[in-house]
Amino acid sequence: MRSAYMVLGIPGDATPEEIEAAFRRAESQFPRERLAQEEGALARLHEIRSAFELLRDPASRAAHDRKLLGAVRPAAPTQRVVVIAEEPSPLRKVMLAGLLLAACVFAAGTYVSYRNAETRRLALAQEEAARQQAAREAEEKRLAEERLATQREAQAARAAEAERRLLAEAQVSARAEAVRTDAANRQLQAQQRAEAAEAQRRDSARLGEERRAAAEARQRTERDKQRVRELCLQLYRRADC
Fold first, then answer.
1. How far apart are alpha carbons 158 and 34 in whole angstroms?
2. What is the C-alpha to C-alpha distance for residues 172 and 160, in angstroms, rounded to an integer?
3. Is residue 48 exposed (0-12), middle (13-18) or buried (19+ Cβ within 10 Å)?
4. Cα atoms found within 13 Å of the Cα of residue 225, Cβ hemisphere only
5. pTM for this structure?
6. Which residue blocks in the chain are alpha helix, DSSP H?
7. Predicted confidence band at 59 (pLDDT cuts at 50, 70, 90)?
8. Domains of the chain, each with CATH number or no CATH
9. pLDDT confidence of residue 24
10. Minimal CA–CA distance to 9: which of 129, 138, 121?
11. Of 3, 4, 8, 13, whose CA–CA distance to 123 is shortest?
């Protein structure tokens, strides 16, 4: 018979928690897509669920264990002792030979059953070891995939952080450049205003100088005219000559 322990891939002394974990792990290997596409997957899933229901109940598990023990350990052959008190008749000899032959056949059958049971036990042990190895490999594969997924998430997070940092640095550089440009523009405007003020001052100074020169020229002309009039008065006794 096929052991429920073999179906779930667990040892015979598994705890209820180990049975529960093995069932969840085995059930997770049969998603809806696999049940719909793979032939025999639904029957395999029913077998796993039946094995779990059998082992989760202590009474049914005990009955299952007794059944397995009875299949592995056949009853030892019984020996019969025949005491012949007198010379047997030919019929009795034939009967005795038949009994001996039956005993030999029974013993041979018992031995063959025992060897078959041992063979089945070894096969079950090998299948159990193979299932445990497959379960370990599946668990290792799952852990490797989880580690790979974690590494990918960490790389994506680092890339996103680097991109955010570069964007922040670009924004800071842009703001600094805008500040420098604004300061340069202000400085240029201030320089232009200062140059315009200086040009206006020079123009004002030039106009003032021209006005003073014109005023001095008029004053000199008036003084010259006044001297000429004075000379005319002195020489000719009149204001104009």
1. 36
2. 18
3. buried
4. 6
5. 0.33
6. 4-8, 16-27, 32-37, 41-56, 58-72, 90-236
7. very high
8. 1-73 (1.10.287.110)
9. 95
10. 129
11. 3
